[in-house]
Amino acid sequence: MTQTRTTRLERGRSALGPALELVHTGQAPTRAVLTAELGVTRATAGAVAAELEALGLITVDAHPTAPVGSQGRPSHRLDVNPSGPVVLAAQVHSDGYRAALVGLGGRIVATAPGCGTVDADPAQVLSEVVAAGAELLRTTGRRCVGAGLAVPSAVAEPEGTALNPLHLAWQAGAPVRDTFRACLADARILSADGPAGGFAANDINVAALAEHRHGAGRGARHLLVVGTGHHGVGGALVLDGRLHTGSSGLALEVGHLTVHPGGRLCHCGSRGCLDVETDPAALFAAAGRSPAPDASALTQAGDLVRDEYTTDPAVREAAALLIDRLGLGLAGLVNILNPDRIVLTGLHRALVEADGERLRGVVADESLWGRSGSVPVVPSALDHNALVGAAELAWQPVLDDPLSALAA
């Protein structure tokens, strides 16, 4: 093989990861766009696309057609392979847990029925959710190339421990990542010491990653995501496509911003934190309602706002109270972080959908740059962004180096 041919081959292989990420995030719908984005020749882009297709990761249409009225040579369309490999995504929260299989492009292939009971032993819970994932793999016959876990706690790096699972009965410092990997190995889904042997992260962090790549955060350079879990409030920041987790994975604990001095007692010992002033429990208390004990409080709170905001004055006043306090917290974050977009998820998604004008007005009035910067505040676009985000953790090694990851 000549040196020139060897160099071209190496250049093409080094472009496999970037090319796959462009298709995965929807940024390269055609081979022509892929060529331009990679900055390579048309021949190299074609070779890269062909190799990704041979690996079973993407599809390339054999007979390209040009849109009606367009000029120039039609380009081959690219898409993720709907029958390709998947990753196992798992989420644990205070109201239960769920497992899913997620393909490239953030596409959920299959989900297991959610469970509403979370054991005090993390090993028991993770064993159950992995078993649910193993059954999905058995019934679908799909190849699994990684696994990711979302939990309602800051996850310290590099230890992989859950530092503050406040709304679970787990002990602080529970080794969730190592336990998850052991469960995956016991179920013979993945090797415990493999490069994609299982990842774990905070649920709002991975939700932000999912929204940035596949949802309402697409195109933002400095994306702030804030939202409620089933209990409490979290935040995350994506900078230039990468999740900002701080020096040890603990950045953006926004739930403990004070938005109502002297208000409700927070788990952290302070009063009036965003965590307890704008979560589902706060909405029910303000509206004089009580959630049903046998169903998700988060789902019930969102449904209450969507169904009764315009018809029940008590619900409207309660939602307005939460909106005002949420807006105050977001204004403080805008002053500190200066994001170019804010995406709200969980109950906050329902609040901005109900009265986005009021919320944006509070942010504008209370922030230094709100009026001039007009930071967009938008609802999340993904219904299961924490699951999709957990999958993103598992897909990352494949996006970084498809050949090595799939050979493992």
TrEMBL record:
Coiled coil: none
Top-rank taxon: Bacteria
UniProt xrefs under InterPro entries: ATPase_NBD, ROK, WH-like_DNA-bd_sf
Family of this protein: Belongs to the ROK (NagC/XylR) family.
Name assigned to this protein: ROK family protein
Organism: Streptomyces cacaoi
Upper lineage: Bacteria, Bacillati, Actinomycetota, Actinomycetes, Kitasatosporales
